[in-house]
Amino acid sequence: MPVQPSPAPVGRRLTWPWFLVVVVVYLAILQGLGALISVDHGSGDSQFPTTESVIRNGVIPIGLSVLFGAAVVTWLGWWSSVLHYRVPVRRWVRFVPVSMLVVAVLAVNYPNLADQPLSLVLALIVMTLFVGIGEELIFRGIGVQVFKRAGLSEGKVALWSSVVFGVVHVSNAFGEGAQAILQAVIVSTSGYFFYLCLRVGSTILLPMLVHGLWDFSLISNTVGADPKTSPGMILPILLQIALIVLVIVKRRTVEPADTADGTGPHTQPAHLAADR
Q1: What predicted TM-score, i.e. pTM, was given to this entire model?
Q2: CA Rg, the chain, in Å?
Q3: Residue 240: CB partners within 8 Å, gap ≥ 6?
Q4: Which end of the chain, N or C, is less packed with Cβ atoms under 10 Å?
Q5: What are phi and psi of 85, to 5 degrees?
């Protein structure tokens, strides 16, 4: 039987240079607005000592970045493609989201949160939820679609969307110094893990959940006037190392056996995950 041509992409076209413009605007909202309305959290060890600091330094700018990402997806007409990414992977890849969810739950600094006002904890939940939604919408949503529609293989889609995700976090150098460079490298690997979550779940909702809970567990150690770091903080670090090793060893077995080249019959067409 003759091979059927891939359907034309649905929605507007967005090239990768324009995607970078979208990312810059996204950063401007986070960093620019954040600088304008933020409150000084002092010279202590706490990143978010009060409920007000969580709301003004996090919830408001991150929430507006979520609205921006949603507006871009709406303008592009990509909602179905962004929400549903049906590109199968082998069963072992399921370990990535499962392990990240389990470790995130175990690593939450429950004693430190128990010492905080309920309003601060609720604000932290909202903020990290916004982080998961906003960053996944921009990078595993729009970014993955941009590189996918450009005809790149799944490996390159994963690589470039993760690299951009990591480089964006270099912007934290304005507040954290040179250690943000190391953070960017680490975040790039996290971006790849979130991409695998997208593949496992076939929906962006799974990496949003994993990302939000992962950040909640990490930030739970840095809230309050006098935060006390939990020994559980070592768990995300150990898992990150373990996942890096696992992916390096099994990187050639991510794709199902019948689609190992990324062009088999069960993968999305190179130019489209068709919107319905």
Answers
A1: 0.88
A2: 19
A3: 186, 189, 190
A4: N
A5: -130, 85
Tokens matching residue 254: 């991510």
Per-residue pLDDT at 268: 46
Q: What is the separation of C-alpha 60 from the centre of its chain, rounded to a whole number of angstroms? A: 18
List, run by run, the mean pLDDT of 10-residue segments along the chain (276 residues).
52 95 95 81 75 94 97 98 95 97 97 96 98 97 97 95 90 62 83 97 98 96 88 93 95 80 43 39
What are the pLDDT digits (tens) for 8-42? 668 899 999 999 999 999 999 998 887 788 777 66
CB 191 within 8 A of CB 166: yes
Residues in CB range of 6: below 8 A, 6 or more apart: 269, 270, 271, 272
Query: What pLDDT does 267 receive?
Result: 43
Domain boundaries, the chain: 16-259
pLDDT at 262: 45
